[in-house]
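Summary for the steering committee. The consortium agreed at its last meeting that each partner would contribute one worked example illustrating the joint modelling workflow. Our contribution is presented below. We chose a case with several input lines so that the handling of multiple components could be demonstrated. No manual editing was applied between input and output; the record is shown as generated.
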Amino acid sequence: MNADIITIGDEILIGQVIDTNSAFIGSELTKIGINIRQILSVSDNETDILNAIEKSIEKSDLIIMTGGLGPTSDDITKPALLRYFGGNLVLHQESLRVIIDFFTLRSKSISERNLKQAEVPDTCKVLINRSGTAPGMMFKKDEKLVFSLPGVPFEMKELLTTEVIPFIKTKFELPFHLHRTILTEGIPESSIADLLKDWEENLSEDIRIAYLPSPGLLRLRVSISGNNEEYLNYKLNNEIDKVIKLIDEKHVFGYDHDTLEQKVGDELVRCSSTIAIAESCTGGKISNLITSVAGSSRYFKGSVIAYDNEIKTDILNIPYEVIENFGAVSEQVVSKMAQGVKDLMKTDFAVATSGIAGPGGGTDDKPIGTTWICAISPKKIVTKKFLFGENRERNMIRASFAALNMLRNLIKETI
Amino acid sequence: MNADIITIGDEILIGQVIDTNSAFIGSELTKIGINIRQILSVSDNETDILNAIEKSIEKSDLIIMTGGLGPTSDDITKPALLRYFGGNLVLHQESLRVIIDFFTLRSKSISERNLKQAEVPDTCKVLINRSGTAPGMMFKKDEKLVFSLPGVPFEMKELLTTEVIPFIKTKFELPFHLHRTILTEGIPESSIADLLKDWEENLSEDIRIAYLPSPGLLRLRVSISGNNEEYLNYKLNNEIDKVIKLIDEKHVFGYDHDTLEQKVGDELVRCSSTIAIAESCTGGKISNLITSVAGSSRYFKGSVIAYDNEIKTDILNIPYEVIENFGAVSEQVVSKMAQGVKDLMKTDFAVATSGIAGPGGGTDDKPIGTTWICAISPKKIVTKKFLFGENRERNMIRASFAALNMLRNLIKETI
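What follows is the complete predicted structure of the assembly.
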C-alpha cells in the first residue's frame, strides 16, 4: 500500500521552516508497513494544492496533508479541499466547543476568525484536535483516504498517532511490521557497526537494521516483516538479544520510546533517592532534561548553575585555590561541584559538569570540547574526562547525555 | 522564474533523515528572487527519479536535485540522468584527481567504487566537489537547467553557494525578492491578525504576509518582489514601520534571525549588567536558553533551580511562612525567588518562575498552566501571572520565553 505526504506552506518552500512533519509521518507510516511513494511540499496556493491532491490520488491509496489550516488569510487548505471534494461548510459543534474551551482556559477572548475554524466541509469526517484550534479532516474518494492535519507539529503528531494511524490499521489489511529500537549513549556509529559486522552479515532477508544517530545518542532499529506475528516477535526478540550481547551494557539505556532522563528518574524512584545537579558548561540543559519528565519533583530537589567562578566558590563552597591551581575545567573542580551541591541540597546523588563549550575559551592544553563530568552516590564518586567537538550546541547536548548516563549507571550499581 | 527542488533517498521518505537540504536550497534561491514552485522527495528508484525530472522540467526553468550520487549500489541518480539526457560515461580527470587527493589526505585506501565516482555523462558540465568525492553536474535542455548535487549537506552547500548560485545569477535576469520577518512574543496569531486586518486589506499586490507561529513566539514575514531594489527596500521598510506601530512594542523583540535569548544578552552587554535566574516550573530551560548564546559568560553569573520548596527556603532565603500562606505558585513567592537569587549571586538583574507545568498538581484555584513570573532590576520589580495550557513541555517553553521577554523589556526601560 502506497502513501503520499503533502506539506503545505510558503515558509517551507522559501526555507524559513524545515519540514519536520514529513519525516515524522513517514516514520510512523513506515512502522505499520505503508510504503511512502513521495513527499511533496507546495505553496499556499489553491491551484497548487488542488494539483497536488489530484496527482497523488491517482497513484496512492492514502494521502496525508499538513498545513494551511490556521485562522489567517494565507491558510487556504480548507477552501481547496472544499472545492476538490465538494459539499458545504457547516459548523462542527464539538470542534466549536473545543475552540471555546481552548480560549476560556487561557482567559483569552475568541475572535471571529477562530470561531470560523470550527467550520468544516460536510463531506469530511472531523478529527477533533484537542491541542489546538484547527480540526483535522478525513475525506474519502473511491477507496482512497485523504487526511488533512494542522501544520503545528505537536498538534499534527497527536492527531496522527491517536486518530489517523489507528483508523488506517482497522481499515486496511497490512502485513505485520515489527520494530524494536535499542537506545545507546556514548558509542560512535562506526564502532557499533564494527561490533555488529558479523551479526549483520548473517542476517536473514526479512530483517533490516537502521542506525539513527543524533548528538550523543545512537538508536539502533531492528525491523522484521511478515504475516505470522507470533513468529516475528519471537525472531525479533532473539536478534535483539544477540545485539545486546555484542554491546557493553553500560551504553544501552533503553528501548523504543524510552528517554535517558526518564530512565534516570525510574532508577531514582525505584530506590527512593533524591538528586541535585551542579552545571557549568551545560548551562541548565541537564536540569531541563530531568524536569521534562512529569513527576520529576519526586526525586529532583534542584540545581545550581555555576557559570561564574564566584558562584562555584560562594555557593558550592569550592576553595578558590582549587580553581586557581587546577582551572575550572578540571577533575578537582568538577568533583567538588558535585560534592558541594549534594551537601547543599542534602540529596543522595549528584552530578556535575565543567567544560569548554566553545566557540571561545579553548587552549592547547584544554581545547574546545574538553569536559569533565562527576557523578556521586552515597558511597562512591566517579569522574571522567571527555573530548567532544567544536560545536557549542552539540557539546552541551553530548555532555548532558553523558552526565545522565554516568548517573544512571552509578545509581544502578549502588542500590 | 520558477525552480523545483528534488531530493532523492529512501532515508528521507521513511523519516530516518529530516530533509534539511531543501530548506537551505529554498532559502538561497529565494534570496536571489527565484520562486520555488515545489519540493519533491522521491525514493532511490530510477523510474521515480525520471518521472520527477520529466514533470519538473515541464513546469520550471530550473531544477536542483540532491542525493543519490554516492558510491554504493543504492545510489542511482547518475544512471537516471544518463538515461534522461543521453550521452556516454566518461572519466573526468580533474574529479579523479580530487578523489585521489581526498583519500590520500586522509590516509585511506581508495576503492574501485570511489574511482568510478569520477565518471560522468559527457552531456553535462561538471561542478568540482572539493569537500567530497561525488562531483556535481549541470545539464541543459532547451533553456532549462538541471543541477545534480551530492546529498551530504555541507558538500551540497559548498557547491550551491560557490558554483550554482553565481552561475544562475549570470545566466538569468532575476527580479528582486525581499523579506523581512518581525519576531514577537506573547501575542496569539489571531490577535495579531485582528490588529493587522485593515492594513492587510489595503496592501498592494506585490506584498505578501505570512504568520509563522511556534510555542510562545510568532514570526510575521513580509515579502515584496519587483525590479527596482532601492524602491522595494523603501516600500518594505515603510510597511514594516506600519506593522510595528500596530503592535505593542513590548511584544516585538527583533527581526529575521534574531533570538530572544540573544536580544536579552545584547541588552545586558549594552548596559554592562549581570543576571541571575531562579527557576521552578521552567526547570532550567531559561538558563539553557541564556547559555546557548556564545559569550553569555560575560553577563550570566548563574541560576538556582529551586524545584523543592526546601531549596526555596534554604538557598533562596524565602521564609517558610510565605510559602505556607500563599503557596509556591504565587506572586509573593516568585518575587522573593527573584530577590533571593539576585542577592545571592550579587547581580543587577534577576528573573524567576514558579508555576504548575502539569500534568499533575493543578487545583480549581490554580489550574495546570498557572505561572507566576517576576523580573527584577536595581530599581524595580515586575510580576505577572500567566495562564498557559495543559501541555507540560509547551508550558515550560512558553513560560521561558515570557520570562525572557519580560526581562528584556525591564532592562530596556531601566537603562
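Residues 212 and 219 of chain B are 5 Å apart (CA to CA). Chain B touches chain A through 90 residues (CB under 8 Å).
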